[in-house]
Amino acid sequence: FAWLALSECRNESADKRFALQQLPEVEVTILSDRVIGRVHEQFMNIPGATDVITFEHGEIVMSADTARQYAEEHGHTVEEELALYTVHGLLHLNGFEDATARDAARMHKVQDRIWKSCLAQLPTPS
Fold first, then answer.
1. Which of 16, 47, 57, 91 is most buried, taking the most CB atoms under 10 A from its CB?
2. Model pTM greater than 0.90?
3. 115 neighbors 84 (Cβ within 8 angstroms)
């Protein structure tokens, strides 16, 4: 999934800098809520767990615990939720922001399109 998402996200840049095209690699790490909560507080000064954190040097960290909870709430698999976090992180690397309602709406529109497109390209589990 990550390769599909990377190829689609590389060409979507909110700030027209296309930073993803300049990064030599992107690292994705899946953590527990406990660990991502520490990362969240240490690097963003925000207490508590979150779903995904993106660092501009190309690291994306995601919470497996949060993914499990949100997947259940939204009626899809944990793998699909983690795939969504991957797209979200890649778009952040390419200049998308979600701090304001307007920016979040713009980002989520692109994110959902890419996420659904990539999921549709995956082989059907047997």
1. 91
2. yes
3. yes
